[in-house]
Specification:
The structure holds two protein chains of two kinds. Chain A is an alpha+beta fold. Chain A has helices spanning 90-99, 112-144, 147-165, 179-195, 226-231, 235-251, 253-272, 277-289, 295-311, 317-329, 338-341, 346-355, 368-375; strands at residues 17-23, 31-38, 43-48, 51-57, 61-63, 73-77, 80-87, 203-207, 214-217, 221-225. In chain A, the strands form two sheets. Chain A has a seven-stranded antiparallel beta sheet with strand order 4-3-2-1-7-6-5. In chain A, strands 8-10-9 form a three-stranded mixed beta sheet. Chain A is rod-shaped. In chain B, helix 2 packs across helix 3 (66-99), helix 3 runs antiparallel to helix 4 (103-130) and helix 9 runs antiparallel to helix 11. The chains are: A alpha+beta, B alpha+beta. Chains A and B meet through strand 7, helix 2, helix 3 and helix 7 of A and helix 1, helix 2, helix 3 and helix 11 of B.
């Protein structure tokens, strides 16, 4: 068979003979053994000092995978979880590889049923916590968070959003600060909030980013993006969006969302493992910006905005016009205010906004000069 | 090895190239499966590392299964999801209501996890030992995670109150707690020796830190910074002392470990371990830096050669030439490439060399008694290392 001398054990010359080390799994004793093959029964016959003759069927012999030492082979028998054979003799390794048909076959995994049950339980408990318990609790707690705490939560969230939106990751996204623009924005905010019953003082700012978007944060913070002011066809449309966001603030929707995300970050981080920890935070910040409130919350914010505009003597049709304008713009939906656009009932909302009773003498939300100032709020300041 | 009757040396046969290939391939699979493959990755890498160590010529075997790790993780998720979701939400709420910041919530949340962390680390060790065999005989560990958790916390409190002077005391008693509950087949391990032997190994660290701190304190108190140059000597002394303590502490603890008439002689060298940490640490950090630097160099090259306009900031330039999702995909790939490179380099330049050195300097004594060590029954251990996995309890692999 080969040119190499093999020492035969037993009388007649056998076609196969080899040597190995054997661990029976009962004691830690390492035994030198000799191997032969019973060709008729297709068994490996194991003999050694102090060992009762043992048979391993050739088809039931497996290698232990991922062994660091590639010059040796560690073998196991499917019928015996602890016994091991360590083969060091290269010739024996070669012969065993040739004769054992299923050396590389891996056992069928055990306990898959139980695994599936626990997987179901894990998915269920995470779903229950993230989708039911955390929102429920967040809704309750949002009502009870004192104003200073809410403001601090809003500031922390704004910082997070500004960092997430800056693509270079170096500095947070700048807040636009041209003085005339800020004055115009403050005037618009005063006119709207003076008409309503918002409990908190509003802090409205513009972020220098081209997204056509706006969102509300806890503590009466409202953030408009420069892209939204650029896209608006007049001050009334900006006022309509602002009124809508004030509606969310009045209902404390952003506080709910922020508390909800505080509860969800840890759970999602746990599921994905630490390797994606940073990605989870980014993802949730993204959710916060594109906050999809419930349809009822959106409808309530619309109603609130329409009432607010009527009381502030701004034509409420601007909200409808802006929605329509966005629809014509929207080739890239992510660039457009998702929480306005995503809802299937947008048509209804446009119709409702268009049908809202206009005040008797509507005045523009800002005069022409103030509107120009607002449009230039992100322009670099003239003073050196 | 130390020659003598009844003694056996330990070989180490692991190599950098296969560890590199395994760690890289398995990490990529882990990312592609959203982390699910990490249980397979751990099992396979452990099989490799375990089989690298050959005390008395027989490889150690790791028999932990990926699916049992996944099961343990799922069990931990069911329990931990509640804590992380509801308790963290309540803590954030309380922290913002009472202190107007989330710092307190993070602190309380962190403190709340500490006992669980110790508990999990003991359970994880128990799981790993129960899946480790040598010469066909199972290792094992008795239950005792709760006792370990409160002892460890007590030691940490003392450690903080004594400004670190109680470290050898903590090292010894926690090691003794774990060792005395460890079994190899029918024999139970025993940690002998005393705290004093570790204090002898602690001297360099103690004086290095003491002199460094005193130099800074005196300089600050007198507003006279002329003698700060002394730190050039004191800080390396403290760092040397840290490695000296780890290495000699390990030697002394090993020398006093027995299992029946089996014993250990460990002779790792401070210089070698310090070198592996210094060079390996450097290489581990260099890997991710090269990945980020390489991508940066390509972008700058594009701009220099005028392929793209260089008058605008980089993100806008990218926006112009590539669709948004491509940029997102590149960003995500880069993010994970940094993590993967870090992990792979750590295996190749830190974990493997350290394991090799500690293995090759290990001698077993009393090996004649091995024949009388008999098997112990299997520990089913359903939850595997689930909590440790969930809490990221830092195991080497």
């Amino acid at each position: 068979m080969t040119g190499r001398m093999v020492i035969h054990v037993g009388g007649a010359p056998a076609p196969f003979a080899g040597t190995a080390l054997y661990l029976d799994g009962a004691t830690a004793e390492l035994r030198a053994i000799s191997l032969q093959i019973d060709e008729e029964q297709r068994n490996l016959m194991i003999e050694g000092p102090g060992l009762s003759p043992t048979l391993w069927p050739l088809a039931d012999i497996r290698t232990i995978p991922d062994q660091a030492d590639r010059t040796r082979m560690v073998l196991a028998h499917t019928g015996d979880p602890v016994a091991r054979m360590i083969v060091e003799d290269p010739e024996t390794i070669r012969l065993l590889r040739a004769r054992c048909p299923d050396l590389g076959k891996r056992p069928r995994p055990l306990g898959v049923g139980r695994l599936l049950i626990w997987a179901g339980a894990a998915v269920g408990s995470v779903a229950l916590i993230v989708m039911v318990l955390v929102p429920l609790l967040a809704n309750q707690l949002a009502e009870r968070l004192p104003p200073e705490g809410e403001a601090a939560l809003g500031d922390a969230t704004l910082e997070q959003v500004r960092r997430a939106l800056n693509q270079t990751g170096m500095n947070p996204l700048p807040i636009c600060d041209a003085p005339e623009g800020i004055a115009a924005l403050a005037a618009m905010t005063r006119r709207l909030s003076g008409a309503g019953d918002v409990a908190q003082p509003l802090k409205v700012s513009v972020l220098d980013h081209e997204l056509v978007n706006a969102f509300a944060l806890p503590g009466g913070r409202i953030v408009l993006f420069r892209g939204l002011i650029d896209a608006a066809q007049g001050p009334d449309e900006v006022a309509a969006v602002l009124a809508h966001e004030i509606g969310h603030v009045a209902a404390r929707d952003p506080t709910r969302i922020a508390l909800r995300s505080a509860g969800s970050i840890g759970v999602l981080g746990l599921l994905l493992g630490d390797f994606a920890g940073g990605a989870v935070v980014l993802f949730l910040t993204e959710r916060l910006i594109q906050a999809t409130y419930t349809q009822q919350a959106e409808a309530a914010a619309d109603d609130y905005a329409l009432t607010l505009m009527q009381q502030a003597e701004i034509a409420p049709g601007a909200l409808a016009r802006f929605f329509e304008h966005l629809q014509t713009l929207g080739d890239e939906p992510s660039a457009v205010m998702a929480h306005f656009m995503a809802h299937p009932a947008l048509g209804d909302r446009i119709a409702k906004a268009a049908a809202a009773t206009a005040p008797e003498t509507p005045r523009p939300a800002l005069d022409a000069d103030a509107w120009r100032a607002l449009q230039r709020i992100c322009a670099p300041s003239d003073t050196p | 090895m130390i020659p003598g009757p009844d003694r056996a040396a330990t070989e180490f046969v692991g190599r950098r190239a296969p560890v590199f290939a395994m760690a890289l391939g398995l990490s990529i699979l882990t990312v592609l499966t959203l982390g699910l493959y990490r249980f397979w990755m751990k099992s396979r890498l452990r099989r490799y590392y375990w089989s690298s160590i050959r005390p008395a010529g027989s490889p150690v075997e790791y028999v932990g299964e990926p699916l049992e790790k996944l099961l343990g993780f799922l069990i931990a998720v069911v329990i931990m999801a509640f804590y992380l979701g509801i308790v963290n939400l309540l803590l954030v709420f309380a922290s913002f209501s009472l202190f107007q910041s989330n710092g307190v919530a993070y602190l309380l949340s962190f403190l709340g996890v500490i006992p669980l962390w110790f508990y999990a680390s003991y359970r994880a060790r128990r799981y790993v030992l129960s899946r480790t065999r040598w010469r066909g005989i199972r290792f094992g560990m008795e239950q005792g995670a709760a006792g370990y958790a409160w002892r460890a916390m007590g030691h940490w409190v003392v450690l903080i109150l004594t400004l670190g002077l109680a470290w050898p005391r903590m090292t010894f008693w926690l090691e003794k707690y774990r060792t005395d509950r460890t079994t190899f087949g029918t024999v139970t391990l025993h940690q002998g020796g005393n705290v004093a032997m570790l204090y002898q190994a602690f001297v360099h660290l103690m004086f290095g830190v003491l002199f460094s701190a005193a130099t800074v304190a005196i300089a600050v108190a007198n507003e006279n910074y002329r003698f700060l140059w002394l730190l050039v000597g004191f800080v390396p002394w403290a760092l040397y002392g840290l490695v000296h303590y780890r290495v000699h502490g390990f030697r002394r603890l090993a020398a006093h470990k027995t299992a029946g008439s089996l014993g250990l002689i460990a002779q790792p060298r401070v210089g070698r371990v310090a070198w592996i940490w210094a060079f390996g640490g450097f290489m581990t950090l260099l890997g991710p830096v090269l990945v980020v630097g390489g991508v940066g160099a390509v972008l700058i090259g594009l701009m220099e050669t005028g392929v793209v306009s260089s008058s605008k900031p980089l993100p806008e330039v990218l926006d112009d030439i590539l669709p948004g999702w491509v940029i997102f995909a590149i960003g995500a790939a880069l993010y994970f490439a940094v993590f993967i490179t870090f992990g792979v380099m750590r295996h190749v330049f830190l974990t493997l060399p350290l394991w090799r050195h500690y293995s090759e300097t290990l001698t077993l004594t009393g090996v004649g008694a091995l024949a009388s060590v008999a098997q112990r029954p299997r520990d089913p251990f359903h939850e595997a290392e689930g909590f440790a996995e969930a809490l990221d309890v830092g195991a080497a692999i």
